[in-house]
Design brief:
This protein has 45 residues and is mostly helical. Helices cover 76% and strands 0% of the residues. It is globular and about 30 Å long.
């Protein structure tokens, strides 16, 4: 659970760094979709 919360709390640069680490930087659409999903999840846990 901590990792998800950390992703949610991450700033834009940090978030993109994490995405690069997990190999998702080359898939901007996936990154945006995940970011949106995380934002919804934080509002509706």
């Amino acid at each position: 659970g901590d990792d998800l919360q950390q992703l949610c709390d991450a700033g834009e640069e940090e978030f993109l760094e994490i995405m690069a680490l997990v190999g998702m930087a080359s898939k901007p659409l996936h990154v945006r979709r995940l970011q949106k999903a995380l934002q919804e999840w934080t509002m509706n846990p």
